[in-house]
Write a structure and sequence with these properties.
The complex is a heterodimer of chains A (262) and B (181). With 262 residues, chain A is mainly α. Chain A contains 13 helices and 1 strand, in the order H-H-H-H-H-H-H-H-H-H-H-E-H-H. Chain B is globular and about 60 Å long. The chains are: A mainly alpha (262), B alpha+beta (181). Chains A and B meet through strand 1 and helix 13 of A and helix 3, strand 3, strand 4, helix 5 and helix 6 of B.
Amino acid sequence: MNARIARLEALLARVAARKDAPRSGGGSVGLAATAASPSPLGPGALPEPEEPRALVEPLPLDSPSIIPPSASPDSLDVPELDAPLIEPVPDSVDVTEVELDDEVPESGPVATPKSEALAPDSEQPITPPPESVEELVAPAARQHVSEPAFVARSRPNLAPTMEQLGQTVDLDEGDSKSTLELDEPGLDETTNEIVITPALRSQPAFSAPAQSQGSPSTPVDASPQIARRAPLEASVVAITSQADARSPRSFLDLIDAALRLK
Amino acid sequence: MTPRFDPTKAILFDLARGQMRDDEGNARLNLPAALLVRLCEQAGPAAAQDFAQSLGSDVGRRIESRLGQHIKTASLEEWTDHLGGQLALLGLGDLSVERWGQALTFVVSSAPAGCTTFIGQLLGAALQRALARQVELVAFAEQSITKYLLVAPDTAAKVSALVQSGQGIGQVVEQLKQGAA
């Protein structure tokens, strides 16, 4: 019992210290997002609080619904108060912050599922500014990693338009863009291979001339059918195919056909 | 069902009596091939041809007796089996038959040297005896084998001229096919 009383006193002291300490809005709003989502968000992605005063009002121990004034320390519902304190919480989460989160509804939009899915890389604008060359190249390079087919489709864009025909085109600028694309940090060698492969496929295929073109004309029946002693096959399929492959005509018919050659 | 070639007891050696006999009981001789070739050369082409045709006619008769009623309905493979078996019993090489479209070619390998013409005449006579067809076989000597193209007697001279001009069997068959068309 004494230990519980001492713990409650320590809790009251911490709450009083929090109440007197100056409050920072970013930390309070970040607390709500942390309670809603286990993954911590960076402080830069959090909006500034609009009503810091509202965070002071719902302090837990000042509310009579939590600690009734008429209740003695022995009759306190200690397990209800101690339950959240005993359970291990992440280092970045404070007990008071958890209690504050339940009564700060203005942090809701930050904790929406769409905000949870955002990765640190996705903080970049989806539509890059048209003046930024690097921002224009980087998303395209990421697409090459997962979908190399887009590389082939993007190649026709490098061709000059009808307005550019006849004008002097600086070839170094076009090559520098492709160099930036290949040297983009985060792209491994396989990415370069994926980018290069469509270009290799687009090259004309050089096939060796067929040897049959230079060879003299051979007769129509250049490969004879040889009759030898048929091997005995145990497989039914082989026997069937062998029976089908046999000549339907007799040897005498073949002799008569050969004798008609003049 | 067409009977297959059976070489069992085709040649019987009676060493006690110093005799060789075939399965029909006829006496056989075991002679050196080179001596027999020399004898044929000294006897002249006509005598050698008569000897080869007589031997071939006996082969045809044997095949006819083995095939019986299947003699005219037997397939190419069955004929190759019997004709090749008889040729092997004589020690005249290994026989196979090739079909070059409409043409038929008899290929003999591992035959004794100097027997090219002899074997061609023997095979022609065997076919003539068994099938009652006038045939001639023109030889195309290659490295270790000899191919015999089966033609009609009136076509044999033309084919021989083509062979003398250096044309191969494929070219000859092509020309014969164009002439028959």
